[in-house]
Amino acid sequence: MQTTRQQKIERLIQKDLSDIFLRYARQLGGTLISVSEVRISPDLSIAHVYVSIFPQNKVNETMIRIEDDTHKLRGELGNIERHQLRIIPELHFHLDDTLDRMEHIDSLLRQ
């Protein structure tokens, strides 16, 4: 069960990473990156960030680029949140494919 502190930090990280990805997506040219969920460990040291990427044909290259730039993204997050958090959590990025699964289920139900 999550504490109120964990939930507040998750929302803060989600909002700030969304702003960072808005600027970051401009460099990628035509790719939309949205942060769908953030889950943080009880000790607040690791944040699992679930991202959704559009269009689908750029998912692999975008995830590779995000993984390569993880330290840069954590640094930008640290600059934004340096007054709210004592320790900036380590970021682990995961692809959120719930929309794809929903579309697949819908197509199966239509058949």
Spatial gap, N to C terminus: 40 Å
Number of domains: 1
The fold-level CATH name is GMP Synthetase, Chain A, domain 3
Apparent shape:
globular
Uncertain regions spanning at least 5 consecutive residues: none
The CATH superfamily appears as K homology (KH) domain
Please report the first level of CATH classification, the CATH class: Alpha Beta
Gyration radius, in Å: 15 Å
The ordered H/E elements are: HEEHHEH
Q: If you average the pLDDT, what whole number results?
A: 90
Overall helicity: 40-55%
Structural class, by secondary structure, is alpha+beta
Strand proportion, as a percent range, falls in: 15-25%
What is the topology, as strand order, of the major beta sheet?
1-2-3
Q: Could you give a short account of the major beta sheet?
A: 3 strands, mixed
Count of helix runs: 4
